[in-house]
Amino acid sequence: MFNNVSKSYPNNELGVEKISLEIKDGDFVFLVGKTGSGKSTLINLLTGDIKPTSGDIIVNNLSLNNLSQKDYPYYRRILGIINNDYSLIENKTIYQNLEIAMLATGQSSKTIHKSIPLALGLVGMTKKMDDYPQNLSGGEIFKILMARAVVNNPKIIIADEPTAHLDYDSSLDIMSLFNEINQLGITVIIATHAKEFVDIMKKRVITLQNGKILGDVSKGKYGWII
Ligand SMILES: Nc1ncnc2c1ncn2[C@@H]1O[C@H](COP(=O)(O)OP(=O)(O)O)[C@@H](O)[C@H]1O
Ligand SMILES: [Mg+2]
Question: Is the CB of 6 under 6 A from ligand 1?
Answer without folding.
Answer: no
